[in-house]
Design brief:
- The chain is mostly beta strands.
- Helix content is 0%, strand content 40%.
- It contains no helices and five strands.
- Strand 4 and strand 5 form a beta hairpin.
Amino acid sequence: MQSSIVIYKTKAMLQLKIVKPVVVWTPPDSGDYSKELWAPEIHFIDNKFYIYFTADDFHQIYCLENPSNDPTTGN
């Protein structure tokens, strides 16, 4: 299980070994989506980035939305 959601950003696949991950979201210390973070997916839909992931004991699906042009920045 993961403790945060990270993105590896590079223009060349061969650089994945050397590029540093960017933490784009860290769950709160407690609450529905604070543990068992798993299977994040990123999608670009209608000029927004969406990260879907599962969390909590029942692996419910959650979604993060980012209107930035760069998924490693914004809110």
